[in-house]
């Protein structure tokens, strides 16, 4: 059983990630790594101040889409970097708040500001508030 505190993570296509001998699960503000098939806790990492929405494979580690931050974890659960914007990374319209591309990550915050960051957590560009 996994128990967390903080924000509520909904179950989605990206809220867990299955590897060859592990499963990673976003629960509240934390990512849990369990061994397969025993489901023993291997490590856990608080990857956001509020809620972790999704976890994705990225090179030799993972990237976590959180409500307040995007977090890069290594395979042992150590935080390599975190990136936060001017507002939360949640969108109320049909636009994706988090998109993992081939060479960068595209983020949209609640006020519709767009951020592009590289895989080292460095901001490449930012667009202002969109006119609606």
UniProtKB/TrEMBL annotation:
Protein name in the entry: Uncharacterized protein
Source organism superkingdom: Bacteria
